[in-house]
Amino acid sequence: MKKLFEAALLTALLSVVLSTAAFAKEATVHEGVYAEGIDLSGMTESEVSQAISDYVDGLKNTEITLKYNSEDSATVKAGDLGLEWANTEIAGEAVRVGQGGNLIKRFKELTDLKKNNKVLDIEYSVDAKKVKDTLSENCAVYDRKAVNATISPNSTGSFDIIEGSDGEELDMEASASAISDFFKNSFNGESASVALAVETVKPKGDTETLKKMTDVLGTYTTNYKSSSNDRAKNVATGCAHINGTIVYPGEQFSVYETVSPFTEENGYALAGSYLNGLVVESLGGGICQVSTTLYQAVLRAELQVDQRSNHSMVVNYVPHSADAAIAGTTKDFKFTNNLDNPIYIAGKTEGRNITFTIYGIDERPSNRSIEFESVDISTTEPVGDKVIGDSSQPAGYVHTQAAHTGYVSEYWKIIKEDGVEVSRNCVNKSTYKAVQRTITLGTATSNAVTSAAIAQAIATQSGDYAKAVAASVKLDGGAGALAQAQAQQQASDAAAAAQAAAAAQAQAAAAAAQAAAATGDEATQQ
Predict the structure, then answer these.
(1) CA–CA dist 311, 315 (Å, integer)
(2) How many CA atoms lie less than 13 Å away from 267 in the CB half-sphere?
(3) Are 457 and 405 in contact (CB under 8 A)?
């Protein structure tokens, strides 16, 4: 028996020695070694790596369902999440089974292999960026904003409370972590689902607070009775977009973001607006009166003004420096509710008046009042006229834009207690450009005489003469005006020539007198 055992041990040791010799050339995996279900027998380390890589690549089409909630989910491929083989070191580990360590260790591993297969676990990972991109594209679309509680005026003059509703929002970091943990610990190559982390977003506002929002914090009205119907439409449209807004503590309100886009579909029409010193037609013209009226109500509610710009030229519906212009995102009116309670903005247009009233809970002392005063620091009167051509209008067309006086002005806030002034602070300082009277002449014509007459009128930069030329164009194509201009030019040239000749003659006489005086001085000295 002892001899038989020794013979078996010798045989086993000999096989270990032979396998070691083979390993010295290029080691291959012993029979009975697996990576999950992959038989690795006889493979080199590089072949093992390729086999496992191919296996993992085949799993990239596995469907993974990302469950947002009980109703909403998105099904994606594992490859979309950046599925990869994580523990690549097992390729070397597979080769080393029965071929590493001392003879006894190798003998034991080979003996064990004959009894039980050695199965190595494949570990998986995903790409963090691809996971988040997939979540953003496929799952964040299910997010629902919380609807804040609000109030609405009723027929009795008070407000009805409208309860808010919860929202849902995907927790990106926690969801990405859940997906990563699933692939690391639970993924077996089969289709599966992963529950995402979704947070409940509670609405702002409670019934008790909203019931108390009956105090008028600030109100202001401006008139637009001289406006065209289209401008009046724009004022009403802008007011309607703002009406009914609740701004909670800490929230910022932007007029531009609320009333835009300025399109016909959004209720706007073409009307006058300022551009480079001119009044031009644009969609939404008149929206600045909306923002200006709200600005005045905000000042009286004593809310925090974050952004406000004056117009390039003065407007006629509020005192100087009391305006708030809107021009895209460069000129916007923004304010923040810096109070402890929400505010409600009510806007209405009636009888060509626009009014904004801001409601809330007024915690200011009852003996305290606010007034505002516009003070002009300097005035600049425009000089001369500006005559320009418009090729889109026919010859004979003339349009006059009145001159605008320029101002530098300040807007002051005055606080009184029991009717006595206790403080006076400058709210803003505004500069308005002085703009010349501008006359626009139509220049579209194929008549050379007419074209020359209009060009001559523009060159003079005289508004009255330009309007006379426009009238002449309608009578005789501008021939009379051009002839008159040429005659005036000739007379002017002749007068200039005569003046130059007289000046030259006077200069010559003065030179002769100076020479004679010099000769007399010489004779005396002699």
Answers:
(1) 8
(2) 14
(3) no
Strands 84-85 and 245-247: unpaired
pLDDT for the residue numbered 291: 97
Using CA atoms, how far apart are residues 242 and 290, in angstroms rounded to an integer? 9
What CA–CA distance (Å, rounded) separates 280 from 286?
A: 11
User: Rounded to the nearest 5°, which phi and psi values hold at 328?
Assistant: 60, -145
- Residue 230 tokens read as 């289209």
Using the 8-state DSSP alphabet, how is residue 196 labeled? P
Question: In this structure, are residues 255 and 237 in contact, taking their beta carbons and an 8 Å threshold?
Answer: no
| Angle at alpha carbon of residue 282, lines to 280 and 284, rounded to 5° | 130
Give pLDDT tens digits for 160-196.
899 899 999 999 999 999 999 999 999 999 999 999 9
Per-residue confidence (pLDDT) for residue 482, from 0 to 100: 54
Inter-CA distances, 124 with 55, 186, 258, 417, Å: 12, 9, 48, 73
Per-residue pLDDT, 465: 85
Residue type, 1: M
Q: Whole-model pTM?
A: 0.68
Q: Given this model, what pLDDT does residue 479 score?
A: 54
N- to C-terminal Cα separation, the chain: 165
Q: Which residues contact 414 (CB under 8 A, 6 or more apart)?
A: 370, 371, 372, 373, 421, 423, 424
- Other CB atoms within 10 Å distance of the CB of residue 431: 14
CB 381 within 8 A of CB 432: no
Q: Are 285 and 273 in contact (CB under 8 A)?
A: yes
Calpha distance 214→161 (Å, rounded)? 12
Q: Which residues of 482-519 are buried (b: 16+ CB within 10 A; e: fewer)?
A: bebbeeeeeeeeeeeeeeeeeeeeeeeeeeeeeeeeee
CA dist 36 and 48 (Å) reads: 12
pLDDT mean values, one per 10 residues, the chain (526 residues): 49 49 68 90 93 94 96 96 95 84 70 80 95 96 93 83 93 97 95 96 89 93 94 95 95 96 90 65 85 98 97 93 91 96 95 96 96 97 90 90 92 97 97 91 88 88 84 65 51 57 66 55 34
What is the predicted pLDDT for the residue at 521? 42
Encoded amino acid at 179, one letter: I
Q: Rounded to an integer, what distance in angstroms lies between the CA atom of residue 389 and that of residue 469?
A: 13
Tell which residue, 318, 311, 279, 288, has the closest CA to residue 402: 279
Kindly report whether the peptide bond that precedes residue 261 is cis, defined as omega within 30 degrees of 0: yes
Distance CA 432, CA 374 (A): 14
Helix, strand, or coil here: 61?
helix
